[in-house]
Amino acid sequence: MKSKDLPSSLKRRQVSLVLGAAVLGISTTRTAHAQSAADYPNKAVKIVVSFTAGGTTDIIARSVGNLMAEQLKQSFVVENKPGSGGNIGNEMVARSPADGYTLTVASVGPMAINPTLYKDLRYDPLTELVPIVLIADVPNVLVVSPKLPVNNYKEFVAYLKSQPKGSMNYGSTGVGTSAHLSSFMLMDALGTDAQHIPYKGAEALNDLLSSRIDFMFATIPSVISQIKAGKLRAIAVSSPKRSRSMPDVPTVAENGIPDFAAGSWFGMLAPRGTPQEIIDKLNKSANQAMVSLEARFISEGADPVGGTPEFFKDFIQKEYVKWKKVVIASGASAR
């Protein structure tokens, strides 16, 4: 007998059973999520860092992960997966089960710059990774070798403009990185030019220390010890406000380029579909960790941020829009 031939009472009963099963399924799913969040984590949590050990991303991930492990009574293990400007590690996390046991601490490059810089990304970090918390803002600082005859931003600009266009050079940690694009933005705003020399990782800093290159923008944590030791001279920071780590160093913005903002930042994310209860639990724990880490972060060159997942989501979107314009203007491209 077909459904249309059933008596109306049986039809009503059939519909009720279907609806009941659907409601039961939703209720069961919600209960499972609630239970998974209640006992989460019950095994080790992996934090994937898409860069090499010892770098700024790695240090921040380990610092926050260690305190979260103490709070949540479970191991948080950092695994380094460098390559392709941070894309390899982030894609690995995006493809992982959405159960809260594989996370990433990512930076401005993989999240906000690479979607424009790379034309063949196999995943979309803006949709396939969900924000947990913005951990820290890390301004880039314009640094020069003490052998360069400049002591402050005004002298740096005057010296730069006194040289033939393109005769000076600057280093970066790679094409399309915030270090590269920060210098491009500054040259563009000043109406001058310098030769860009991309490096891999710390090689740029080594050449700056030996005066093989003239200047570069670098994250404060990566150069703060050399600045304190007098091996490098800090000229200006790229953030809209002065860094709490280096309050005596002025911003580029306060030196005549009011809209200049080109810093780095670091945040924790999870695969799309991770239960909101787990996201909220991780967010609470990370925020608590940052309270304990505030003094240490500031001394090392990072400004702790914190906040809600929603705040971080909006922040990433704004950063993507900002950096998309810069990448296109610079002509930078990575394959």
Class by SSE composition: alpha/beta
What's the domain count? 2
- Give the percentage of residues in beta strands: 15-25%
CATH A-level architecture of the largest domain: 3-Layer(aba) Sandwich
Unreliable stretches covering 5 or more consecutive residues: 26-32
Give the SSE order as H and E letters: HEHEHEHHEEHEHEHEHEEHEH
Task: Walk me through this protein's architecture.
The protein is an alpha/beta fold and 335 residues long. The chain folds into two domains: 45-137 and 264-330, 3-Layer(aba) Sandwich (D-Maltodextrin-Binding Protein, domain 2); 140-255, Periplasmic binding protein-like II (D-Maltodextrin-Binding Protein, domain 2). Helix content is 47%, strand content 18%. The chain is built from eleven helices and eleven strands. The protein has helices spanning 8-38, 56-72, 87-94, 108-117, 125-128, 153-162, 178-190, 203-209, 220-228, 276-300, 309-330, and strands spanning 45-49, 76-80, 102-107, 129-138, 140-144, 169-172, 195-198, 215-219, 233-237, 264-271, 303-304. The strands form two sheets. A six-stranded mixed beta sheet has the order 2-1-3-10-4-11, with helices on both faces. α2 packs across α10 (276-300) and α4 packs across α11 (309-330). It is globular. The termini are far apart. The model is unreliable at 26-32 (pLDDT under 50). This is Tripartite tricarboxylate transporter substrate binding protein.
